[in-house]
Write a structure and sequence with these properties.
Length: 296
């Protein structure tokens, strides 16, 4: 290949097409349990988290509820992936061998939110959410109608690989994927670029600005106990009993059981089997099962 800007532009188009193929065809899981929230600054404050506004009969004046402010925020982080292609490979027409690598770069960009979301989910037993407690904790403070406070648990302790019950039906799902700048494929191929001049290397890369965080803990239940019918029932029933600060039922109803490969068999058994241990499985069909490779 003759090295000129026209041919380099055509090369970039080909590499970008390979990147887009990898990005477009990759299977993604994060949007099943996380809401994408656009960001317009370096950090976003989610002061309204914890508020579940409900309806009441309108008698007399409106009753204005003062929103309790929380200091939970998500700061955007920059991420990148870059590779270099030697000029000699392009000049010798061997550039086509790099197409699979650019497809793999597209796959990495597409599944990057998965890696962030599920790493955060596993860390939910030791990472704080909006109320200052761990996302999965035994003592989330919830106010009663009389002003007193009750500690509420959304977890089971244990030494097994974690599994999670979630209610993902609301506008804000249990986790947040915050996006400041979308994943973009770029290049450095000008003869004036230092890498091209000094090392005859053309550079290609993808970058983005984003981060992840927690939404409402009431929409998630995490367990490190073994995944069995008794443990599943306990988590399911606890989630359905969650109430707002005024003592109003939140209407939480788990619809998704999230597990890693180690819990795949038990999860599918609980969610789909008609009979378990010679007993009718009353949990059949209550939740969908999501098995993701990013969990244990």
């Amino acid at each position: 290949m003759i090295i000129n800007q026209q041919n380099l532009a055509a090369l970039f188009t080909g590499y970008k097409a390979a990147f887009n193929t990898g990005f477009r065809t990759s299977e993604k899981y994060w949007d099943k349990l996380a809401t994408m929230v656009p960001s317009s600054s370096s950090v976003e404050l989610y002061a309204w988290l914890g508020q579940f506004p409900g309806m009441r009969e309108w008698i007399g004046d409106r009753v204005i509820k003062s929103m309790e402010a929380h200091n939970y925020s998500i700061r955007n982080k920059p991420f990148e992936s870059s590779i270099g292609v030697d000029r000699d490979n392009i000049e010798d027409d061997s550039y086509g061998i790099f197409n699979p690598m650019f497809q793999e770069m597209g796959y990495a960009a597409a599944t990057h939110p998965d890696q962030l979301i599920f790493a955060l989910l596993q860390a939910g037993f030791t990472t704080a959410c909006y109320d200052g407690q761990y996302f999965f904790d035994v003592d989330h403070p919830v106010k009663n109608s009389d002003g007193s406070t009750t500690s509420v648990s959304n977890m089971q302790d244990g030494n097994n690989n974690p599994w999670f019950l979630m209610d993902t039906r609301r506008p804000l799902k249990p986790l947040i994927f915050q996006k400041r700048r979308d994943y973009a494929f770029t290049s450095m191929t000008s003869m004036q670029d230092e890498a091209v001049f000094m090392r005859k290397e053309y550079r290609y890369g993808v970058d983005a600005r984003c981060n992840v965080g927690f939404g409402f803990w009431q929409q998630a239940f995490g367990s490190k106990d073994q995944l069995g019918p008794a443990q599943y029932n306990d988590g399911y029933d606890r989630m359905m009993s969650f109430q707002s600060d005024e003592g109003r039922p939140l209407g939480i109803k788990p619809n998704l059981l999230v597990v890693g490969p180690s819990n795949r068999e038990n999860a599918n058994l609980i969610a789909n089997a008609e009979i378990i241990n010679a007993t009718t499985n009353t949990n059949r069909g209550l939740t969908d099962v999501l098995v993701v490779p990013w969990l244990k």
